[in-house]
Write a structure and sequence with these properties.
With 378 residues, the protein is an alpha/beta fold. Helix content is 32%, strand content 13%. Helix 7 links the parallel strand 7 (230-238) and strand 8. Bound molecules: flavin mononucleotide.
Length: 378
Amino acid sequence: MMHKEEFTMTTDTAKALFEPFRSPKLSLDNRIVMAPMTRGFSPGGVPGDDVAAYYRRRAENGVGLIVTEGTLINHPAAGASTKWPHFYGEEALNGWAGVVRAVHEAGGKIAPQLWHVGMARKAGTGTHPDAPSVGPSGLNLAGERAGEPLTEREIADLIAAYAQAAGDAKRLGFDGIELHGAHGYLIDQFFWAVTNVRTDAYGGDMLKRTRFAAEVIAACRRAVGPDFPIMLRYSQWKDGAYDAKLAATPDELARFLEPLVDAGADLFHCSTRRFWEPAFDDGADLNLAGWTKKLTGKPTVTVGSVGLDLEFTRFFKERKGAGTAGIEGLLERLARGEFDLVAVGRALLNDPEWAVKIREGRDDELRAFELEATQRLY
Ligand SMILES: Cc1cc2nc3c(=O)[nH]c(=O)nc-3n(C[C@H](O)[C@H](O)[C@H](O)COP(=O)(O)O)c2cc1C
């Protein structure tokens, strides 16, 4: 087994990616984050030795922080597949303990991505097919009625389920948690006016639509104490609504983020499909992670097509792979401090050695992203 420390060569060009990262609650050997990627290799919701080995391979090969695939909180309608990992129940949590051990033995760090898909769940799927799908207003992502609005009691139970998972993550030895608040899933369904038409404290103007997330973060904070890192992943775009915007201007974004910071978020993972795109049409070059860092002062993670020439939703919708692409533009942005960390999805799914190849300038060994990569867990 190789440890990160054994790599000696770092090309000057890639240097910005391999500077250590220091923040009040989280320190990392370098700036590379493995993006959360659902794999569907956990039958019965239990991540096994193969899942542990998959993550260990990335930790051994120069990834600073692994964010796990979305893992389901304890709610009967949290997920849409029996092969997505659970983050509750003794067997699944034992499986996760094995994952943490494997990653730590290899010198890496790891945070679980806590996930509830909300109304994005197709009826009749997942571990409890009879459970109705839930969301703030019972609306699907097209804004059509597909269920009942959540009651306040049910909302309280969901918040408690996130907090339970956060506490378990800390107990199992994870290095932080990521809350999945992006891509049109449950937390994002509260954020978004199309899926949240509630008229109580959880719906209405943008501030009220942040309330669910803020309460989730605050409850997680109570469960993990003051020093454990809580990261929030959020996105403007939603599945099937790529032009959607939670915030249309930097001012709106500041108002959106403030309650989330106040509730206890330490880092923001700003999900975009192409990292080089400006977040707003105001002439500024900053991407969403750039603006989020500027507005909150918190460390941010950028993501989207790093090292690849086609964005990832094309893979899902059109079954397209992607060729390799240079990362010079990314390095420039990182070096000038636009954001702090860089999440890499498909390139790392494809190739566990991606980070070390970048570090050592072995560009000729970088591989195109093939569809078959998603069928195997290596
Ligand atoms: C197979 C696959 C599964 C994914 N699953 C998740 C997930 O569980 N949670 C999440 O927030 N994003 C998920 N994503 C999005 C990635 O985290 C990432 O944001 C996206 O792939 C863009 O990064 P890339 O261009 O480097 O691949 C997934 C992406 C892929 C390709």
